[in-house]
Sequence to fold (408 residues):
Amino acid sequence: KVWSASTCELACTCSGHAGDATALSFSKRRPRTIRAASQQEQLSMTLVSASQDKTMKVWEIPSAKELEKVLGPGSTVKKSKVTVIAHSKEVNDVLVSPNNKLIASGGQDKLLRIWKFPEGDLLGECKGHRRGIWCVAFSPIDQVVASASGDATVRLWNLKDFRAIRSFQGHSSAVLRVAFLPNGMQLMTSSVDGLLKLWHIRTAECAGTFEEHSSKVWCIDLCGKRMVSGGADSKICVWRDTTEEMEKQRQDEKADLALKDSRIAMLVREGKVEAALTLALDLKRPGQMRQILLDHTMDTVGRSMFTGAKSETAPRSGSLESIESLPKKSSHKKRNKAKRAAEKVSKDSNGAKKDEMEDPKEEDTAIDLRRWVLSLNTEQLERLVDLLEQWNSNRRMAPLAQMMFAIL
Fold:
């Protein structure tokens, strides 16, 4: 039956199938101008139907102008223009291609068949599904067609040689519906398991799973950035595409993290190492924390070695002890000259040491790990402990983790 979209009144009845009608599809090409639309209203319309009687029929029904005159009782079309035995079992779905040149049909015989529109001549068939095909869909941009099957898979077929080019696996039950998104780069599917899945066509990866329905999802339809789904749970759900919003949010977060990462490096250069460690901990940057701590450890070891070398008491050339150890036979003049040179070296060394102790830059850049740990709040401490536990399970990071555990 054909109904008026504006008044919901009966416009036409097509009689001829011997079984239940399972699918319908009007021709897809739409007029682009008002003049073309007015001309099309005066032309007869073409409708393709499928049935459980294994047949596919192409109907020629009166024009929209003529149907408007008989709304209510409606007109009757008793004979189809074309009738073909499409499959060896029930025909589950038919669809006219966007360019009005092809018809795709899927049946319980596991076959997807491609027909010429509107003549109904068989062009080819696609084999590969292990169970019946429930739904077919043409790509809006490529010469490919998708099929959803009871074997829980969706397959993509090339319309030139009718071979499978990709398989989408992820549903646990029969896939009932498949539809291309308007951009032609993604697929939406629905299944007996109550799930809707979004797929990337190039990679055959599932981009998202939606669980609003609690039973079979029998139908889906897409219009622009919105989608409607209806299921056996008596629910009709309206969905909105938020891809652009999520992408913008991801870009903003990425830019914010890049800014904070540069802030960590700037704090280290300014000598505010403890603040840099805290920021790295908050941003969950274990690699930067590790580098800062390793730099601190090596710096501490280096200063300790330098201090140890300074404090050695072994006699060295130019020291007072080495002067006293000169042979007694050395001339008095020679011993006094060496003693004055040693005193000058000792004075210069003490001056340099005093300058190093008074160097404010070294004091500012020094890091006190105990003080830093005490400055952390409870949440930061928990995050630090979790990180140290991960490091402790790594042979290369274990010493650093155990040092921090000792401070904790």
Remarks:
- Confidence is low (pLDDT under 50) at residues 313-326, 352-365.
- Residues 243-269 form the longest helix (27 residues).
